[in-house]
Amino acid sequence: MVSATIPGKIGKYEVVQKLGQGGMGIVYLGFDPYNNRPVAIKVALESSFQDEESKKRYQKMFFNESRIAGMLDHPNILTVHDAGVDDNQYYIIMEYVSGSKTLKGHCSVDNLLPIEKVVEIIFKCCKALDYAHRLGVIHRDIKPGNIMMTGDMDVKIGDFGIAQISKAGETQTQFMGLMGSPCYMSPEQVREEPLTSQTDLFSLGVVMYELLTGRSPFHSENFSSVVRKVLFHDPNPLRLYRSDIPKTLEVIVMKALSKKLSERYKTGTQFSTDLRLTYININYSEIEIDHQEKFNSLRKLSFFREFHDSEIWEVLHAILWREYPPEHPIITEGNLDETFYIIVSGEVAVRKGQGGTAATLKSGDCFGEIGYLTKTRRTADIASISDVTILEVNTTIIEQVSPGCQLRFHKVFLKKLLERLSRTTEELSEF
Which of 95, 111, 145 delimits the end of a domain? Predict the structure, then answer.
């Protein structure tokens, strides 16, 4: 039953209940009868417009969000389905994420997330921002309140209201001047200089600092003091507040917060690569093998047979080595994963549904090729049978090696994939 205090419909969408309200808008839970799905309906508050000029400005922001967010299709960016005007009501129809809440609640000292969870969240934000930046979109307002955490602890970046498109020729709906949340602004944003994607990475560094310590690196009582701190103040070391924060993680956050663009992360990929390596060190014991022994191990694998020695050394310094005990899950059916695996030693089992082992893979074999290539959900479970050593490869890792090495990798990868498909075709033809 729809409450009398809320509209029954907005546009073609049924309104179910009110979810929340801010200074500029209300968000309702709605239902899309045409696509048979729940949606979130964001409606502009007419009462928030002080005059005709502020009304026009907010309308521009409102549809800037729908236009830019509608360009983006990424699992960690909130999807915008539709936007419109109904009886002078401006609304945006967004993906509804059940049980979601913003990260704001986890930026307080008494409600901090585990360190490894913070690393995972920021890693996903890096990947989402890198995707947006490659399309020329700069968010400009990255802060905890604009990052949703879902019921299953995934993340979604939203609110592209003041985002800008950095591509040439894009001037419509662009917002210039000092815009954003002061405590999360980059120095160049405060100075009202032309912005690059690095401004979002600075803001994400502020978010990470808060998630790890429960404190803002630039907190002050008034706007001018905040600005001075952003421009001239070096934040306190994270480990001043939490001694359990790894030194490597502190270095990563401070690099993201560098006031000099030349010293800050240039891309979300660079940021995410450092985070991934730190995540591995926090959660797993990497195999303690001498570099020469690792090189010898790679040289023996058929996958690296065509690689030059210099290329193997490149891969060696970029690739992730993982060790699993027997009966440890490696891939879970249904998960969305873009990792490709190469077995160095040991054996793994491929299992589908409730059935038994469909195949056994051993040293030199590969798996996960389709997920790596198509970014689709996994179609089988894979678990270790014995102690197993595995190389993990993803696009983030491959982007760190030279173009020549990347070309070699993709050439061998496609060759292995064709061999796998050929064997599958032969097996099917026998039936």
Answer: 95
